[in-house]
Amino acid sequence: MRARVTLATSDGHTWVLGHGDLIGRLWTAALPLEEPQVSEAHAMVSLRDGELRLLALRRRFALEGKPCREVTLAEGQRIELAPDVVLEVLEVVLPEQVLAIEGEGLVRQVLLGVSSIYTHPQPTLAPGYEADADAWIWTDGEHWTLRLRDRTERRLVPGESWSLGRRTFTAVAIALATSSQDATRIGGALERPLRIVSWYDSVELHREGESPVVIGGMPGRLLGELIAIGGPAPWKVVAAELWPHMAERNLRRSWDVTLSRLRAKLRAARIRADLVQPDGSGQVTLALTNRDTVKDHA
Q1: Which residue, 35, 45, 39, is CA-closest to 70?
Q2: Residues 83 and 106 in one domain
Q3: Number of structural domains found in the chain
Q4: Which end of the chain, N or C, is more open, meaning fewer C-beta atoms within 10 Å of its C-beta?
Q5: Which helix H or strand E contains 257, and what residues bound it?
Q6: Is there a single domain that holds both residue 153 and residue 108?
Q7: 18 contacts 111 by C-beta, under 8 angstroms
Q8: Is residue 246 within 8 Å of 254, Cβ to Cβ?
Q9: Are residues 77 and 127 in the same domain?
Q10: Cα 15 to Cα 71, 78, 289, distances in angstroms
C-alpha cells in the first residue's frame, strides 16, 4: 500500500523511493548523492492527484534537455540533476490504495517510508527517523510497522487505532486518486486574495483596500524560504537554511517557536493563520488559493 518509484544511478545501484523521499547530498536523504553540483535537498518525490511526481527544491533538474521544476515520473525517463548526474526511472508502482494516519489535532496524512510522530506542541508527522519522537512508523515495502517509545511494536493495518498520551490516532486506507490535495485548492473560498511579495529579510502581504502587512525577523525569513523553494519541503530543509550552524538537536525547538510566532502575526493581522501548513505528506508548504499571487524579489 505504498506508491513507489525505482531509480537507477550511473554507478548501477537501484533505489526505491516513495512519497516524501528526498534526493540530495544530505546523508539522511532516501537517495544520497555525494556530488558537489547537487544540492543538499535537491528534489523530492511527491504523490499528487494519483501520480508520483519529482519536485525540484533548491535547484532545478532537466528532462530531455529541458529545465523543470516538476515532472510526472514514468518508466524510461532519464532525469539530469546536474551535468553527468543522471537518474533513470526503471519502474513506477501506483497501487489502488495507500495508507495514511489521522488523529486528534492531526489532519489525514499519507505515510512516508519512515515517519516519526510527535504529540507536542501539536501532533506532527515528520519524515524520516527522529530519535526524540513519540512513535515511529515504517514499511518494508509490503507491511507497515508501528513502534512506540516503550519499544512495543505492532503490525499496522487499516482501521487500527492507538493512543499516544491523551491523543488517539488511526490508520486509514485511502484511494490513490484522492490521497493528495493541491495547495492551490485549499480553503480560502471566501478570503480576499493575497498578493505576497518576498524580499531578502521580509515578506509583504497585500490585500485590496488595506495597508500591506510586513512580516520580518525569523518569521519573515521562514515565509521567504518557502516562497523561494516554491513547493512543499521537509521542515528540516527549511530550518537548515534559517539556522545553518545550529546543532540538529536544537533545530526543532527553534522551528516550532518561529512557526508559532509567524502564525500569531498572521492571526493578529486577520490573515489566515494556516497560510503555512503541512501539505498532507509530512512536508510544510504555503497553502495558497487559486486567487493568490506570489512575487519573489529575494
Answers
A1: 45
A2: no
A3: 3
A4: C
A5: helix 248-268
A6: yes
A7: no
A8: yes
A9: no
A10: 18, 14, 35
Domain of 292, in residue numbers: 195-296
Please calculate the CA angle 66-22-60 and round it to the nearest 5 degrees: 20
- Residue 278 is inside which H or E element, if any? strand 276-278
In a domain, 184, yes or no: no
pLDDT at 258 over 60: yes
Q: Quick check: pTM over 0.70?
A: no
Instruction: Please check whether residues 199 and 292 belong to one and the same domain.
Output: yes
- Last residue of some domain: 143, 178, 213? 178
**Whether 121 and 207 share a structural domain:** no
Question: Tell me: the pLDDT tens digits for 205-214?
Answer: 988 777 789 9
- Tell whether 108 and 16 lie within a shared domain: no
What length does the chain have? 298
**Does residue 242 form part of some domain?**
yes
Residues 6+ apart with CB under 8 A from 174: 97, 98, 100, 108, 110
134 and 83 within one domain: no
Last residue of a domain, which of 119, 143, 178?
178
Separation of alpha carbons 164 and 148, rounded Å: 8
Q: Checking DSSP bridges between strand 70-72 and strand 51-56, what pairing results, if any?
A: antiparallel
The C-alpha cell that represents 120 in the structure block: 507536542
Q: Is 223 in the same domain as 248? A: yes
- SS3 state of residue 44: strand
pLDDT for the residue 281: 57
Cell 516519526 found at: 116
**CA–CA dist 239, 97 (Å, integer):** 32
- Over residues 46-75, the pLDDT tens digits come to 887 788 999 887 678 999 889 988 899 999
Q: Give the C-alpha distances (Å, rounded to integers) separating 172 from 48, 153, 216.
A: 18, 18, 40
pLDDT digits (tens, 9 = 90+) for 11-20: 889 999 988 7
